[in-house]
Amino acid sequence: MRLTKEQAAENRRHILETAGRLFRERGFDGVGVADLMKEAGFTHGGFYNHFDSKEALAAEVISGALGSANAALAEELRQSRARAWKRFIEHYLSLEHRDDPASGCTVAALAADASRQGPEVKASFTCGLEEVLGIITDHLAQTTPDATPAARREQAVRLWSEVVGAVVLARAVAESNPRLSKEILDTSRRKLLG
After folding, report:
1. What span, in angstroms and rounded, lies between the C-alpha atoms of 20 and 48?
2. d(Cα 52, Cα 63) in Å, to the nearest integer?
3. Are the beta carbons of 84 and 77 closer than 8 angstroms?
4. How far is CA 58 from the centre of its chain?
5. Closest CA to 163 of 64, 92, 85
6. Phi and psi of 29, rounded to 5°?
7. What pLDDT, in 10s, does the model give residues 17-31?
8. H helix runs in the chain, sequence order
9. Could you give the CA distance from residue 24 to residue 128 in angstroms, rounded to a whole number?
């Protein structure tokens, strides 16, 4: 039985969505093609009808996930500048976000993994990172108009590095030392919103 173009597109979207969740949860190397396709409800052989390789899939997942997250952040910051940044920080540096990497930020979940992947994944990750830094820099142009463009870019890099790093570190110690994990999030949140 032949699939319609619409059904094939829907199947591809479902595979991408499933892969994104599994990659954020287990890392790129923690997800095999067979496991991914089983989780998505398809046969292993069907993978290659949609993607040339696992790396091509991973690059597309990164591109799509970061593109969507960046667009949402940009829109939220445009709508309500000061309040939106505060809401973003409060959510990003929360226990809920720490405890749910599968549906959380792709950067916090996969930054270390991305550095070990091939050039397609690294390029997608770099593009998404540049985009979010641009969004934060643009936001800072509205909230700190007296700062130079170079100073705003520097501040954007520092802010993004701090929030992502805090989540990465908080997740790393959450099981062995929940108090330290919470301290990392609370301290970063307080300093960023202070």
Report:
1. 17
2. 16
3. yes
4. 13
5. 92
6. -75, -10
7. 999 999 999 999 999
8. 5-26, 33-40, 54-79, 81-92, 95-98, 106-114, 119-143, 149-173, 178-193
9. 15
pLDDT of residue 151: 97
Whole-model pTM? 0.91
Tokens at 84, concatenated: 């939106």
Separation between Cα atoms, residue 107 and residue 62, nearest integer Å: 9
Asked whether the beta carbons of 133 and 153 are under 8 A apart, the reply is yes
User: What's residue 80's pLDDT?
Assistant: 78
Residue-wise DSSP of 129-179 = HHHHHHHHHHHHHHH-TTS-HHHHHHHHHHHHHHHHHHHHHHHHHTTT-HH
CB 120 within 8 A of CB 55: yes
Other C-beta atoms lying within 10 Å of the C-beta of residue 12: 15
What is the b/e burial string over 109-137, where b = at least 16 CB atoms within 10 angstroms of the residue's CB? bbbebbeebeebbeebbeebbebbbebbb
- Position 1 scores a pLDDT of 59
CB 29 within 8 A of CB 12: no
CB 159 within 8 A of CB 192: yes
SS3 at position 43: coil
Write out the two tokens for 29. 């190397």
The 8-class DSSP code of residue 117 comes to S
